[in-house]
């Protein structure tokens, strides 16, 4: 059985995982220390996520990644379900948000987890990254913003 735990410090020890979701250390540095990191351990760390408090009851997933050999085993979904339960319990948050590339890998994953697209930031990846980011043979350009409501169970 897997275990999800907070990582209070030394978050950069998980750079290998962080780089799977964000290729820029400069961008990771912008959110890593102000974010709360969680790791999923199932006979070794298989996945991580970093969440930030954006104010007004909004949480944002800044980074979520699963080791390539452990993908499609439910670890990413487990992290999102954990975030919902953990942050619902606080009563302080109403929305879970994520910004991601317009990729056939990530958009369907978030939609299956209950997220819906609310907006796009045009040319985000071409304006903020020094090199092209290619996923599934497609160059990522726009950032797609998705949200789901958090409700007290």
Features:
9 strands, 153 residues, 5 helices, two-stranded antiparallel sheet, seven-stranded mixed sheet
Describe it.
With 153 residues, the chain is an alpha+beta fold. It has 5 helices and 9 strands. The strands form 2 sheets. It has a 7-stranded mixed β-sheet, sandwiched between helices. β2 and β3 (45-55) form a beta hairpin. The mean pLDDT is 92.
Major sheet, described briefly? 7 strands, mixed
Shape call = globular
Rg, Å, rounded: 15 Å
What are the segments in which pLDDT stays under 50 over at least 5 consecutive residues?
A: none
Distance between the termini: 24 Å
Work out the oligomeric state of the chains in this entry. single chain
Report the sheet-strand fraction. Answer: 35-45%
Structural class: alpha+beta
Average of per-residue pLDDT values: 92
Q: What percent of residues adopt helix (DSSP H or I)? A: 25-40%
Order of SSEs:
EHHEEEHEHEHEEE
Number of helices: 5
Strand arrangement within the widest β-sheet reads: 1-2-3-4-5-9-6
Number of beta strands: 9
Briefly say what this structure is.
The protein is of the alpha+beta class and 153 residues long. It has helices at residues 15-21, 25-31, 75-88, 106-112, 124-128, and strands at 3-7, 36-41, 45-55, 58-66, 95-101, 116-121, 134-135, 138-139, 143-149. The strands form 2 sheets. A 7-stranded mixed beta sheet has the order 1-2-3-4-5-9-6, with helices on both faces. A two-stranded antiparallel sheet has the order 7-8.
